[in-house]
Structure formats: C-alpha cells, structure tokens
Task: inverse folding
C-alpha cells in the first residue's frame, strides 16, 4: 500500500462527484487550508488540514490551490499534414464548408493521414498530447476520422492505443465525411464491417458521426448509430456546427453520451438536450478559429442541460492545444461562470465519455489533480496565454 498526504493547499476546489446540471454546476466544494490523502492512486480523504489523518508520507504543495485534473472529452489529436494554407485562405474569405465541398479541408488531412504509418501518427500526436497534459488534462478522448479507408481508420486507432498508457486516452471511432463516390456502399461497410471489427477488437468504446450538410445526413447517422448500439458501443455526435438538421434530436432520442459543437443550435435543440441525459459539449476553440457563433452555453445550463467543454483539438477548425484555455474561452464566449467551467471540464466532461470514477476530489475517485501556480483557483479560467497549471498528478503520481 502506498499512501501520501498532500498538504499546504490554500484552497481545494471541486465539483461534486457525478454529472451536474443547471444550478448544481455552480455548487463547488471549497475547502480552505486543505489536505488530500491518496492511497494506491485513489483519493482516500479530503478535508481541512487540522483534521487530516496521519500518513506514511507527506508532500508539501507549497501554498497553492488544488483542483481536479481536467478531462478533454473531444479531440482529433491524431493527424498528419497541416492546414496552414487553408488557414490563410479562410482568413482571406474562403468559407470552411466551401473548402470541404471543393475537396480540401478535412479531405486534405485525410489524404495526408491515410499516407502515414502508425509510427508516424504516434510521433506526430505525442507532442500534442504533451501540450494538453501540461494544460491540466489527465484524461483525453481521441477520435479517428481522418482515415476514410478502413485500414487507415484502424491505423489511427492503433496509434491512440499505443499512446493510451502514457496519456490516459479514450478512443472513439469517428465516421467523419463520406467518400465522393459509392456513398451508400460506404455507409453499409461502416455498419457491417468496420463497426463490428472495432467492437470485437476493443479499438474504441464509442462511435461518433459528423452530421452536417457536407458530411452525413440524419438518416445515415441513424443507420450508423443503430449498428453501433447493436455492437455495444456508445454514441457521440458532431451536430449543429453550421446547420440544425435534426442530429441533436436524434442523438437525444437514442441516448447518446454527448452531442458536440451546437454553434447553430436554437431553442428546440436546447430543450431536447435539457430533457435528456446526453451531455451538450461546447467547443469554444471552433468559435474563435472559424469565427462561428458561440454555442448557447448559458441557455443550455439555464435550461438544465448537462454541459461539458472540450478543445476539439484538430488542424482545421480548432488548433487549440490547451484544455485550460478552452475553459477560459468558454467563460468569455459561451457565457459560463468560472465555477460552471470547472464542472464542465471535470465531472461533466468525464460523464461525456461514460466515466464516473474521476473528475471530483472525493473519496473513491481517481487521484487526478492539479496544483496551480496560484493560491486562488480562479486563476484557472482567468489566465489567457500563460499556464496557471504548475503540477499535474495522475493516479496520485506526478505526470
Ligand atoms: O470537430 N467539424 C468536423 N470535424 C472537426 C474538424 C475537422 C477538421 O477540420 O479537420 C471538428 O470541428
Ligand atoms: Fe470535432
């Protein structure tokens, strides 16, 4: 048994364990002059230092605030090539969707990724995941989706599997954009070949679909989701990024873990999410980088939805390598309070991945936590550009 008591914590600040909706997202537990006992990688006790149990070992954190490790519930951290020319073109006025319709954008990343080996993909993804880790991420979801052909999709998932032990990754199979020809056959192959293989080999725990005008229709999404469910996989969805096609309503109806993006969502989508257990995941990096409207974070929380925040780290719509900055942007762009942002980046983000064993500093939870540079936790969402995270601990060990 290994046991460490962490002391000299000015404030220990955490959401309550489990998913939180509405006003409960603001109900943080704040313990001044706190201590934290970790036993075998799991939190055994939290409370005021004066009431702390004795432990075999103590670790003085030096008088700073402690918060839970962050979960990034939406990344595309594995890709090859770059979108630097796309970025310049977009800044000069070419819309993102038009680039995709012309065979560029996501499709250019697909060509580069399909040409890369698993070893190349691992080497390219590692520094991106290190950047996320430094920003406070202790668990990250990583999607496939730049493969198109099934061999390349499997290579992407193999790269995620190889990096999993180092970074605490959760892999998702993303069915991203259809081929330009033989579309119906492609969807059939996804349902009858790719999803069964991925489920059998445990390569991903969930299936995500990009439901949008330039990608998959609601009917195709329903078909893919039906196959995913039949093979015991969770559902996630990219929806309402540019248009509201009905994907959000479908995902809520089928009990998806989350619907992500929501920049174009209106009152009907907010109501559907609020009435469901599906997490609404907002991605403020996309709002900043593409100049899209902000997803209605404030309205979602006020309506009682479960809300999470992700980076959407990817080369085209969100080159955002910091989950801390994603939370800071959600406060500015999506109307969250700092307390709501902390909840959105911890327990709710974990719930968006179907994980209940992490995200809160409470007995029984994984000992994933952050020591900040500051004595006041509010620096976490205040800081822009600097990194307020000093130390990252995963399972009670410095990462
Ligand atoms: O989540 N919008 C669809 N997919 C990604 C972007 C992928 C890309 O542009 O390379 C997203 O924004
Ligand atoms: Fe995405």
Result:
């Amino acid at each position: 048994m290994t046991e460490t008591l962490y002391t000299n914590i000015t404030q220990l600040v955490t959401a309550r364990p489990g998913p939180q909706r509405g006003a409960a997202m603001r109900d943080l537990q704040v313990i001044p002059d706190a201590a934290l006992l970790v036993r075998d990688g799991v939190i055994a006790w939290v409370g005021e230092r004066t009431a702390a149990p004795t432990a075999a070992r103590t670790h003085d954190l030096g008088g700073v605030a402690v918060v839970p490790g962050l979960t990034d519930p939406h990344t595309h951290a594995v890709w090859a090539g770059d979108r630097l020319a796309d970025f310049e073109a977009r800044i000069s006025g070419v819309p993102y969707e038009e680039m995709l319709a012309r065979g560029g954008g996501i499709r250019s990343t697909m060509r580069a990724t399909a040409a890369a080996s698993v070893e190349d993909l691992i080497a390219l993804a590692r520094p991106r995941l290190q950047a996320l880790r430094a920003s406070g991420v202790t668990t990250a979801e990583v999607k496939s989706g730049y493969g198109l052909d099934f061999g390349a999709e499997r290579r992407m998932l193999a790269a995620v599997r190889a990096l999993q032990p180092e970074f605490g990754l959760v892999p998702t199979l993303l069915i991203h954009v259809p081929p330009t020809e033989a579309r119906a056959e492609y969807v059939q192959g996804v349902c009858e070949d790719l999803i069964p293989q991925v489920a059998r080999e445990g390569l991903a725990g969930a299936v995500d679909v990009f439901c949008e005008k330039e990608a998959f229709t609601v009917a195709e999404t329903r078909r893919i989701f039906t196959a995913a469910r039949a093979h015991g996989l969770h559902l996630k969805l990219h929806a309402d990024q540019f248009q509201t096609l009905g994907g959000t309503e479908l995902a809520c109806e089928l009990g998806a873990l989350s619907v992500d993006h929501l920049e174009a969502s209106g009152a009907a989508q907010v109501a559907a999410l609020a009435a469901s257990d599906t997490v609404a995941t907002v991605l403020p990096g996309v709002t900043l980088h593409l100049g899209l409207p902000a997803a209605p974070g404030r309205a979602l929380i006020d309506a009682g939805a479960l809300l999470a925040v992700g980076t959407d780290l990817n080369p085209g719509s969100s080159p955002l390598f910091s989950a801390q900055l994603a939370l800071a942007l959600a406060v500015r762009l999506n109307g969250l309070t700092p307390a709501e942002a902390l909840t959105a980046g911890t327990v709710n983000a974990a719930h968006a991945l179907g994980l209940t064993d992490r995200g809160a500093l409470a007995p029984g939870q994984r000992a994933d936590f952050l020591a900040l540079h500051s004595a006041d936790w509010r620096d976490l969402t205040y800081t822009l550009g600097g990194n307020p995270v000093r130390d990252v601990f995963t399972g009670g060990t410095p990462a």
In short: The CA atoms of residues 327 and 341 lie 6 Å apart.
